[in-house]
Structures are given as structure tokens and as C-alpha cells.
Design a protein that fits this description.
The complex is a heterodimer of chains A (307) and B (399). Chain A has 307 residues and is α/β, with parallel strands linked by helices. Chain A has helices at 9-22, 37-41, 65-77, 86-98, 102-116, 138-151, 155-168, 184-200, 220-229, 233-243, 247-274, 291-303, and strands at 27-31, 52-55, 58-62, 118-119, 122-123, 127-131, 175-180, 204-213, 279-283. The chains are: A alpha/beta (307), B alpha/beta (399).
């Protein structure tokens, strides 16, 4: 799940997980920026690096670069966790904040590792949903394995980043989805992300979600009675008495509704004309501050897409 | 919900941010991505040149393209551009001062940082051409935030402007940004780097190879060529330490001084809002001068009018009867379907507005922090005219 901050990525990631779980899939949600928003939205408290069940069939983990490195070293070098690694951990500290793509490779590597994780003889997860960072950092992240392939000329890592790259560039296994809002700038950015993902990465774009679509359209003709009602003081008084409310207050809201409904249609058209993938509209909800309730509402609208 | 809002009349007048911030030399607008930081900082800058005869520069990090071109800074523009007075007047603003706009280009800021602090020309060239440098600006957490701060500092030191308004890059988290100066000096000068860069005639690997399994592992992981390049890069960076650390300390001091003012911007979506509240707490903890809270894209106060809510509910539940009443009052036939649809649209927004009011009310617990409300604009704000319309909200005039 990619998209600028504020587009509702986390809620959508949670909603998708709920839909998939209801269809019997075993889902893993990965939160890359580890702020705890995704586990919270799934009704849990902030989590650590180990997958934990948060809802029936849904597990969740929050990414942590240091632990990812420790896990990696343990797996491939039989280095016991935290043993004699102090200098390495410190070098890593530097590497994670400064060396190009070090953290990105760990993120993408962890995801690839989970993709291959077995439970008995079958894969542990049917679906992995990754809530990416809000900074639009997703393209360098997706390209981290490839960038590493160019930087690293030998060593074990080379083989591993090749393997990661294979998973990412297989559209049967990996899809990028993009979130947007029915406003000029978020839609422009979604289109840009779509184009750049196609041009600069080998990942396939699977879907675009237009979040917070105003669910109604109001025509100028439908608005007319309320506009007429405020054309003179006398009329406004008469209508006030009839409706038991100031028509001006009703007009302000209805006009805003008209504007939002029109914007929704305009931006849906724009996205559909441009995107190579399906564009799904997610209706605006008076979401509570309780994330799970909102995610359930979005899940309901995902399960029965509007026509 | 305030009494004014409950009556459905205009909300009580808010704080006048122009007056509140008039003694500042720099203003930092921060908040989550997508909440309208650029819009708010540009509006604030505009309001300042309207009110005072001063030279104001607004430095933006990632503006919407149309807004950037409205300010005269296209995709190419890194150099500051004066916004023509005639252009301001056309947007309905009679400027007393002068407005300058610039866009921050973080990549060239990184280059300038190296140019400024590298101990020698040779060292500078070695850093700039090292493969690890190439994407360092992408990878370094807090790097872009630091660059914005350093740019701000340089502009402030230059004394060319009376006021610098900056909008911050979208941060992974509020902390990245506040800790950026400290992280930067840690990064360039930490003990770890000294350890890594320990010069040795015998070569970097020989020193450590016996002591730890580190080099063995790192070698197998990355190949020795990469390690050598990394060590080289680290050694070069060390030369910059003194300069960067001194500068980072200055930036930090400036941000804590009364010359600076922080404005936290948010919308009422739960996540940005929570982050904004957290940000306010942290700013205070860090001793940064937090001046105001701006709630952007508020729904109009009319939408929480209880009488209108009752009327809209009736329009949905008894659409025929309400349509008949409206038809009589207007002397013109109004269809039940129209009445139903209007009521439904109104109620959809009403439910959202009620939640928003509750959220803002909760925020008032944040001591006596002035809270400015910017109404959701009639149209998306993409030009100077749009910005000009937001000035009233920032000046606390009822919307």
C-alpha cells in the first residue's frame, strides 16, 4: 500500500486484511514505519517485530531495522542474537542511517523472508499487506534490492538481493497499490507514483483506491430551491418557518456536498483515464476515532464495491 | 462545541496569528504530510506582507505544482523569486512589504553542506564522488529535515529578509525533525565513525580482524571491496565533523530562541491530528517556542447547527411532506427526491462536522495554545486568490 500521508493508507491496509481474512486467507500485515497505527487500527496495541495475531486469521508486525539485522545474521550465519555483535550493531546503526538503502534492503528482505516462511509444508501466509511509510519513500525502497545488486559485487548478499528482486518483479506474487483522495494534488501524486513505478521499478501496479469519495452527487437543479430560498429576506423568513431552520445553513452544507460530489466524479474520471489498473472508490465515512470501526466500514465497502 | 457553533452562527473570533507572530524572525510550520503546511505557510507569509512593510521569504519543500507556479517558482526554481506586486494586487492583496518565494532542493543542499564543511577541496571531491554519497540524502533519516533547518539558518543569518517562513518536509515522525540537528552531528562525529575510520597503515581490516567476528561476517556479506569503499567514505566524513557539529549546534540554538516560532498544522483526520498533538507536547518538551495550532480544512460552522440538523433529518425521513412545505413557501414545485437528496448530503457532512467539533474541543486541553481555524475552502487552494481568502481565518476573523 503506497500513497502520501493522509490518504488513509493504514485504514485501507487494515480493511483489506479484514476482507481477506473473512475469505479464509491467512494474512500478515507489516507496518514499516513502526508508529503503531496499523496494529491500533486492527484493534491491538503497538507490536514488536514478531508476528502476533491481532484478529482472526490476521497477524501483524512492526518493522524494526535492528531486529531485522539480528534475525538475518542468526538465520544465515548462525550468529546467536546479541552475542559479540556490539561492534557490528554499532556499524549497523551507522549503516541504517547513512548507507544507501541499507534499511530499505532490510525492509524488503524481511518482507521477502515472510513471503517464503513455511509453516509445516505450506506457506505461513496467503497474503502479506505492507503499509509503507508516509513519506513517498516507497520507490527507493522497492528499488533497494536492485540498487544493492549494483553496489555489492560479491558476497552472500548478492544472491539474496537477486532472490528478493525476483519476488518483487513477479506480478503473480507482488502488486503495488496506490491510495489517493479526490483532490487535485493527491491525485496528481498518485498518477506520478503510478507512472514512476512503471518506468523505474519492475513491480506491477495492482489497484488504485480513491478514498473519501463523497457518496452523492447533487446537480445545480437540485440545489436551486435552497438558493432561491435565500434570494430575499422575506423568502428566507418564509422558508425558515416552513423548514424550522435557516435555509442558509442548509444551503452551505448542500453546496459543499455538491462541490465534493463533483470533485469525486472529476478525479475518478481522471484516475480511470490514466491508470493501467482498476480504480476503486471508497466512500467517505464519518469515521470515529476508533480505527477498527472505521476499518470495518471500509472493509464492507470493499467487499461490495459500488457500481 | 462552542456556544457560537451550537447556535449555528459564526464561530467566536480566533487568535490573530499575524499579530501573534509579528515579533518573530522565522516561523516553522510543521505537521503530517497532506495537511496543508505549504498552504498555511504561504498564507502566513502573504498575510505578513499585507500587514507590515517587511521583506518576507517563504521557503517551501514540496509544494503542489500549481501553488508553486502561482508563487512563481516552477519545477526548476531553486533561486528565490520575488512575487510581483501587481500579481498580489490582482489577487486582492495590497502589500505593504515584499514577498519572496523559494523552493528547497535537498540534494543541492547536501552538496552545499559538503562544500562548506569538507576540510579540503580534495576531500570534498572524494566525498561527492563516493558511491555511498550518491544516495545518502535519500537514506539518511532526518537528513531532509536537517537540510530544511540549515537552509532556514542560512537565510536567517544572511539578514536579507525580516522574516523567514519555512514549511517542513513530511517527516516519518515528528521526532525525526526535532532531533535532526543532533542526529546530524552524531552521524558525522559519533564514536562509531571514529571506530570505523580508525586510520591504520596496515589497512583497516588488519586492525580488527583478530578482535571480532565482525569483519569476517561483513566481508562475507558485502564483499571486501564494499567495505573498503565504506571505510574510505567514513574517513572523509570525519573531516567534516567539527564544522557540521558547530553549525548543528547553532541551528539548534536558533530554533530554541525567541526569534523562532513554531506553528503546528493539522487537519481533523484522526492520524494527522494525533500526530499534531504529540508534536505539540514534544516541542514543549524540547523547549522550542510553540506559538500556535492551526486546524486546516474545518467544515463550516453551519453544519453543526442543531435546527438545521433536525430540518435535514426531516427532509430525509418525511421527504414528501417537507417537499410540499417547501413548495408552498417558495411558490414553486420542489420534488420529494430533491429534498431527500439535499437532506442526505447535508447529514453526511453534518456527522463529520460533529466529530470535528468534538476533536477541536478536546484539543483545548492543550493549555492555552492559540488555535486558529481555517475553513475548508470553496475550491481547492491552488493560486494566490485562494491563499488570499484564507488570510481572514489566520487573522482570527470569524469564518
Amino acid at each position: 500500500m503506497a500513497g502520501k500521508g493522509g490518504t488513509g493508507k493504514t485504514t485501507l491496509a487494515a480493511a483489506l486484511a479484514l476482507v481477506a481474512a473473512r475469505r479464509g486467507k491467512r494474512v500478515l500485515c507489516i507496518e514499516v514505519d513502526a508508529k503503531g497505527d496499523l496494529p491500533r487500527t486492527l484493534g491491538s496495541t503497538p507490536l514488536g517485530f514478531e508476528p502476533r495475531v491481532v484478529q482472526p486469521h490476521i497477524s501483524c508486525l512492526s518493522f524494526n531495522a535492528e531486529e531485522a539485522l539480528a534475525e538475518y545474521l542468526k538465520l544465515y550465519f548462525k550468529v546467536p542474537r546479541f552475542a559479540r555483535l556490539t561492534p557490528l550493531a554499532r556499524v549497523f546503526d551507522f549503516a541504517a542511517s547513512g548507507v544507501p538503502g541499507a534499511k530499505d534492503v532490510l525492509v524488503i528482505g524481511k518482507i521477502a523472508f515472510e513471503e517464503k516462511r513455511l509453516e509445516g509444508s505450506r506457506h505461513a501466509w496467503d497474503l502479506i499487506i505492507v503499509d509503507t511509510e508516509a513519506t513517498g519513500h516507497v520507490l527507493p525502497q522497492l528499488n533497494a534490492a536492485r540498487a544493492m545488486m549494483e553496489l555489492v559485487k560479491g558476497g552472500i548478499i548478492l544472491g539474496q538481493v537477486r532472490w528478493i528482486d525476483q519476488i518483487l518483479s513477479d506480478p503473480q506474487r507482488t502488486l503495488l497499490t496506490i491510495c489517493a483522495l479526490p483532490e487535485d494534488m493527491p491525485v496528481t501524486e498518485a498518477i506520478e507514483l503510478h507512472d514512476r513505478a512503471l518506468a523505474e521499478t519492475r513491480i506491477a501496479v495492482g489497484a488504485c483506491f480513491l478514498n473519501r469519495c463523497f457518496p452523492l452527487t447533487i446537480t445545480a437543479r437540485q440545489l436551486r430551491p435552497l438558493e432561491l430560498a435565500v434570494t430575499s429576506a422575506a423568502r428566507r423568513r418564509t422558508v425558515s418557518a416552513a423548514l424550522r431552520a435557516d435555509p442558509q445553513a442548509l444551503l452551505v452544507g448542500a453546496r459543499l456536498g455538491q462541490r465534493l460530489g463533483t470533485a469525486t466524479q472529476v478525479h475518478l474520471r481522471r484516475l480511470r483515464a490514466h491508470m493501467s489498473c482498476p480504480v476503486l472508490e471508497i466512500p467517505m465515512r464519518a469515521g470515529s476515532r476508533e480505527g477498527l470501526a472505521t476499518a470495518r466500514m471500509v472493509a464492507a465497502s470493499l467487499a461490495e464495491p459500488t457500481t | 462545541m462552542s456556544a457560537g457553533a451550537a447556535r449555528g452562527t459564526a464561530r467566536a473570533a480566533g487568535p490573530d496569528l499575524v499579530e501573534l507572530l509579528s515579533d518573530r524572525e522565522l516561523i516553522v510550520c510543521c505537521g503530517s504530510g497532506g495537511v496543508g503546511k505549504t498552504t498555511v505557510s504561504a498564507t502566513l507569509a502573504l498575510a505578513m506582507v499585507q500587514a507590515y512593510d517587511i521583506r518576507v521569504i517563504v521557503l517551501t519543500v514540496d509544494p503542489a505544482r500549481r501553488l508553486a507556479s502561482a508563487l512563481g517558482i516552477g519545477a526548476m526554481g531553486v533561486d528565490p523569486v520575488v512575487v510581483p506586486q501587481a500579481r498580489l494586487r490582482r489577487a486582492g492583496i495590497r502589500p505593504r512589504g515584499e514577498l519572496v518565494a523559494a523552493m528547497l532542493d535537498t540534494k543541492s543542499s547536501w552538496d552545499r553542506l559538503v562544500e562548506r564543511h569538507a576540510p579540503s577541496r580534495l576531500s570534498m571531491e572524494r566525498i561527492l564522488s563516493n558511491p555511498f554519497y550518491a544516495s545518502i540524502s535519500d537514506a539518511f533519516v532526518g537528513g531532509n529535515e536537517y537540510m530544511a533547518m540549515e537552509e532556514l539558518y542560512e537565510l536567517h543569518q544572511g539578514r536579507e529578509y525580516d522574516l523567514v517562513v519555512v514549511d517542513t518536509p513530511p517527516s516519518r515522525s515528528a521526532l525525526d525533525f526535532l532531533e535532526a540537528p543532533r542526529r546530524m552531528s552524531d552521524f558525522v562525529g559519533g564514536r562509531l565513525l571514529s571506530w570505523l575510520a580508525r586510520p591504520s597503515r596496515a589497512g583497516w581490516r588488519a586492525v580488527n580482524v583478530a578482535a571480532t567476528p565482525f569483519v569476517r561476517i561483513a566481508d562475507r556479506l558485502l564483499g571486501s571491496e564494499v567495505l573498503a569503499e565504506l571505510a574510505e567514505f567514513v574517513r572523509e566524513l570525519q573531516g567534516m565533523y567539527a564544522g557540521v557539529q558547530a553549525q548543528a549546534r547553532e541551528v539548534d540554538r536558533l530554533l530554541r530562541s525567541p526569534a523562532a516560532g513554531f506553528v503546528v498544522v493539522t487537519t481533523l483526520e484522526p492520524q494527522p491530528f494525533e500526530e499534531a498533538e504529540f508534536f505539540c507536547t514534544k516541542l514543549r518538551e524540547y523547549g522550542m517556542p510553540l506559538q500556535a495550532f492551526v486546524v486546516n480544512r474545518m467544515l463550516p460552522a453551519e453544519l453543526v447547527d442543531p435546527a438545521a440538523a433536525a430540518a435535514a433529518t426531516a427532509m430525509v425521513e418525511h421527504d414528501r411532506e417537507r417537499a410540499a412545505a417547501l413548495s408552498t413557501a417558495l411558490g414553486e414545485r420542489v420534488g420529494a427526491q430533491t429534498v431527500h437528496r439535499l437532506g442526505e448530503a447535508w447529514l453526511t457532512l453534518h456527522r463529520l462536522a460533529v466529530l470535528h467539533e468534538r476533536q477541536v474541543a478536546r484539543l483545548r486541553g492543550l493549555d492555552d495554545l492559540p488555535v486558529a481555524r481555517l475553513a475548508l475552502a470553496e475550491h481547492e487552494v491552488v493560486d494566490l486568490e485562494g491563499l488570499a481568502q484564507l488570510i481572514a481565518g489566520l487573522r482570527g476573523r470569524a469564518t
